[in-house]
Specification:
single chain, two-stranded antiparallel ribbon, 10 helices, 32% helix, 2-oxoacid:ferredoxin oxidoreductase subunit beta, metal ion binding
Length: 288
Amino acid sequence: MATFKEFRNNVKPNWCPGCGDFSIQAAIQRAAANVGLEPENLAVVSGIGCSGRISGYIHAYGLHGIHGRALPIAQGVKLANRELTVVASGGDGDGFAIGMGHTVHAIRRNMDITYIVMDNQIYGLTKGQTSPRSAEGFKTKSTPEGSIESVLSPLEIAMSAGATFVAQSFSSDLKQLTALIEAGINHKGFSLINVFSPCVTFNKVNTYDWFKENIVKLEEFPDYDPTNRIAAMTKIMETGGLLTGLIYHNQTRKPYEELVSGFRPEGLAKQELQLSRDEFEQLTAEFK
């Protein structure tokens, strides 16, 4: 069985010192080892942005896609290789701006992949512009007088789109984050895990200290039931989306792959692609 160290490679991350993405990378590696994966069982697909670099920092199959397109690629990988555990990742700009259309449809489609969003409420790679996750009044190079747009709530959108697994964590809480990624990987269906990942270079508002003062941990509510969809949405709204933990979990709905008629369980690379004469004639007969 692979250990945490076996999911490391020789590529040194070039994130800014103190970036929350370091912890998210470590959590993915720990979770992969904890659920019993081998590097060849895992595929990490990422988009563009600081967070998009993560697919090159983990010893596994990796693909660095284009802006906002991590989820279409990840879904294609899963459909072609059902035996792989597929993790998609990206930032709040990648997933909730240019890629939001893909995010919503991936959620409702419920394919068996895990999507980890590194949410720093700003565009970090392009040197600090307002993102869909920036609060009203947030001042950046693109909004010097403060943002006049309302902040987007990905958790509310996920719930509305019919998500079957919704969680949120904080990059400083490595134990909780690792456990949530493990649960997301084990969940049969689409898992959304939004992670507060402070940008230490450009976001001087949503800092580590700010999150520690404002985050509400669901573990503080012993009676909270993550299978209650109405309660989950209510708690999201009550806390302004600043809660962490397993917010919602529904395992009664089957993942997309199990609903596709005639979809074989083995990956395409392992299938016999040569049609027999009988199979060929049976297929062509459908068009007569």
